[in-house]
Amino acid sequence: MTKVSESEREIKVSNQTKIKKGKAQEHEYSLPVDPDALLQIRDLSVEYRASGAVSKAVNNLNLTIQKGEAVGIVGESGAGKTTTALSIMQLLPDRVGKVTCGEILFHGQSMADKSEKELNQIRGKNISMVFANPLTSLNPVFPVGHQIAMSLRSHEKISQKEADERAAALLETVGIARYRLNDYPHQFSGGMRQRVGIAAALASSPELLIADEPTTALDVTIQAQILELMKDLQTKYSTSLIMITHNLGIIAELCQKVAVMYGGEIVEYGSVREVFSNPKHWYTYGLIHAIPKLTGPRERLESIPGLVANAQNLPEGCKFHPRCSHCTGKCKTEIPPMRTINADHMVRCWDTEA
Amino acid sequence: MKKKIVKRLIASIFVLIGVTIISFMLVRLGGGDPARMMAGALATDAEVEEFRVRMGLDRPYIVQYVNYLGGLLKGDLGYSWSFSMPVSQLLATRIPQTLSLSLFGFGWACIFSIILGIIAGIKQGTVVDFVAMFFAIAGQSMAQVWLGFMLILIFSVNLGWLPSQGIGGFSHMILPGLCIGFGYAAQQTRLMRSGMVDVLREDYITATRARGVSSNKTYFKYALKNALLPIITNIGSQFGRIFAGAVVVENIFNWPGMGQLIITAINQRDYQLVQSILLVSAAMLVFCNLLADIVYTFVDPRISLN
Amino acid sequence: MKLSTILRRMRKSKMFMIGLILLVVMILLCATAKFWVPCDPEVGSLLDRHLKPDWFAKGLDGHPLGTDSLGRDILSRLFVGGWVSLKISFVVTLISMFLGALVGLVCGYYGGVVDMILMRICDVLAAIPQLLMAICIVAVLGSGMGILIFTLTVTGWVNTARLVRSAVLGMKNKEFVSASRVLGANTNRILWKELFPNTITQLMIAASGHFGGTILVETSLSYLGMGVAPPTPSWGNMISDGRAYLSSAPWVVIFPGIALALTVLGFNFLGDGIRDVFDPKNID
């Protein structure tokens, strides 16, 4: 994360700055552009609009990924993680999803300004994605080899033979026998399908891999295998990684940095060590302490009371305040800004003594 | 998989045998004296009796039925007394007319509905989609018989562009072809559109875009192949119905095919002709369904490989 | 779902409302036709043959929709005939649905030999196109309202049976039936209390489609002279009446078709609307 002084940050950030429709108003970004960053998300807000209801999925999100860095995004379902991922790829559902504010810079260039052709160049090659549900993310009527080679064929002029060869090699990398190249997705188990998905995402050696809950639909032993695979690949190819999950253990295994999301916002950010050993946001605290411990005296599991924030009906002020046991009057009305605790740790909370 | 196909074929044959039983019974229930009718109004009683014995009409029904089946296997569909020629010969002149009309009507409707459905599905919510859905719903609500006359009214009577009666060159086929395929076009447009919409919502389509595949390729290769699967089955079941719907269309446009034939046959109590027409129509329906199912098993990888 | 939820979703669904309104208007007009139509639908004066429609210029005293070749008032025939067609379709649909649902339930639940035999019968019946079969039956049994209803029913119940059967087969294996069994419910109870309600929505949608389809087949039959017999009007035989004078008096053919299209349209919209209203995936 960029080193900006606390005072500067507090001047620039007020409550949400909205871009008014139709008026070419200059949006005041809360953070400056980081020229070295691979990917920088600035003040991103995304809404879903369907049959009259507006769902504020992402609210004023700021995130920077450096080259070779592995960042985890953790949060419950509905926190806006997948939406963020799709926004990076510019793949929000056509009429329904809309970016209402902010920008996404890849290598310093705004993704929204790019043409369809340019985006297709980037997708699969520079940035690629592994999807959450292996049972639905592969096309049932095309062989897996073909699907793995999709990005190869979209970005390079290669012959069928060469595409097959490279796809077979990728299959082996993810631990599936070569001869299964022409088999169809339904002939594989969930874990194997997920591995196919990973192979397809890695086919063109992307600079940034976004993994959206890659192991959620799998059982524990398979999970371990996949994680080993991803760790392997990270060290081999130094791919930057955004790991989206609600499993803290996975983040601890794979990532250097972690961002905790709630209600479409990042509420805590920092190195994994810092955030997990010393959580400053009550939500993070709740998440960590909700994990049952295998050792030590048996304690009652702490759970976070209340329900996950509803994107269609977000609370005023701090989005977590209805569930927070340390909520104050200020929390209910004003959105807390991101506050720096130290070089490795930032939190969005009014409570300074957490 | 071959086992499956053979099984279906055998089942189809049994179905057709069932059809022959029904049509045989139906026709025999008609009352009246078939021997008298066939022998002619001027025949004497003795001649009618002689005719009855000669034609085997005095035998018990079961025997008659078995003889009938036996004849079928030899390709003998019986004798049409009202047209004074073997049924098979008569049908040989008429089936091609109905078949050509059906194929033409079916052909344009199939292609048109697939294209319109795809576009409507891709551009869901836009004007194109609205027009397509309007066509789909309205088209299925119109009576074929009324549509036929409206077409004649507009294109034949008022504009004078196209002939409305009989056979004689391609221009004669246009109006009846339009009429016969219209309902099917409407129905399949709807099916194609909703199939496309459903497929485009799937995760694997987003995943395809995420790998850098252009939107055109995504739509027309990766989405379409999935969306076309139910269309194959639909084609199988609808073609048979078009063939049958020819009855009304041929009546309106005076098209000399099987549809017209069956009306005449019924009015004349020409049993063997009626039986055979029913059988041929049913056979066509069964055959189309079977063919569509076979094609489907080859095309959908989830089914062909066990 | 609660009744209040259902009603609310009904009001919200445009499809449902349009279909409902179309049908209510049409059914009301036809059902009450006897009382308000200006002329006798079966008798006309030859002096008045082929009068052009005067579009309510003289109110109901004139012939708002014109007259046919026998001088009969089209407007009167339209709605009286409409009621005839609607009544027939209603009875046919009711019986077909009931018969089909019964067969489907039995086949789906009991399976085995019963299923096999009944399904083979369905296959054979389905192999003969409905219109052809209907023509043959009418030719054999003669014309008449009862026979017409019988014919349309016999040729139309197969689809419902298949639909219900596959729904039952699908549900039989679902978890909640096993759960019910574990609680000790006997077979019949499972059948009536749990499987049937879940199929009702599909049946309703199928019924509205069936209604529309039956009217169309009846129209074709009447057109061919094998349905409703003259002088009783029916939209189908009105069209065949007007055939010979298509160029000089097109209105005789045009109006029945429009009325028919509007009615079937109403049923189609209603069916779609029902799908919208009862689809559990539509959250509001």
- The spatial strand order of the largest sheet of chain A comes to 6-7-8-3-9-10-12-11
Overall outline of chain C: globular
Q: Which residues of chain A sit in consecutive blocks of at least 5 with pLDDT less than 50? A: 1-24
- Principal-axes geometry of chain A comes out as globular
Which structural class should the secondary elements of chain A be placed in?
Answer: alpha/beta
Q: Biggest sheet of chain C, in brief?
A: none
- Count, helices of chain A: 12
Estimate the helix proportion of chain A, in percent: 25-40%
| CATH third-tier fold name of chain C | MetI-like fold
Give the CA-CA distance, first to last residue of chain A. 22 Å
Q: Would you tell me the overall average pLDDT of chain A?
A: 83
Rg of chain A to the nearest angstrom?
21 Å
Mean pLDDT of chain C: 83
Query: CATH superfamily membership of chain C, which one?
Result: MetI-like
Instruction: Report the β-strand fraction of chain C as a percent range.
Output: under 5%
CATH architecture of chain C: Orthogonal Bundle
Q: Helix/strand/pairing class of chain C, anyone? A: mainly alpha
- The CATH class of chain C is Mainly Alpha
Oligomer: heterotrimer
Number of strands of chain A: 12
